[in-house]
Amino acid sequence: MQPRARIRPVRSDDLDRLEEWRNDPDWSEFDWYGFRPPGELRRRFDATGLLAEDDGYLVVELTDGTVIGYVAWHAVYYGPPPTSRALNIGITIAPGQRGKGHGTEAQRLLAEYLFAVTRVERVEAGTDVDNLAEQRALEKAGFTREGVLRRAQFRNGAFHDLVLFSRVRGE
Question: Domain spans of the chain?
Fold first, then answer.
C-alpha cells in the first residue's frame, strides 16, 4: 500500500531543498515565477518559522517521512481588512509523486488546518486553465469551482488564465 501524504511545519533541514525546488524551472510547469533571492526562505523561517497567519509554508511528506513537496498560503482581501480576508493556497508536488492523490490529500489537510487555526471564512486556490490534474485534485479536496480569472497570472513570460476554486468554513 502506498504511504499517505501528510503536512507538517517546515524544519531548518528542509530549507535548502525547498529553495532548490522553488528555483528550478523544470520542477513544476505551473509553479515557475522566476529565480528567487538566495536565502529568502531561510530569512522568513528565522523570523516566523514560515507559519505567519497571512502567509506560510508547510512540507508535504509521506507517512514514511519522504518529503514530496510543499503547500503554501497567502492572504487576499475582498474589502477592508481584517474581516474581508481570505487565504489563497498553492501546492507543488515532486514530479514522480504526482497523480497518486497526495496533492488532493495535502490540500484538504491544509484547508482544514487553516480553518482550525485562523478566523478566515474562505480558503481559495487558483490554477492554470490547462492544469486539469490540479483542477480535479481541488474538487476531490472539497473545493468548488467558481470561474475563470482572465489573464490573472504572469508566468513564463506570458499572462495566463486561472480557474478559481474555494472552500468556505463548514463545507
Answer: 5-123
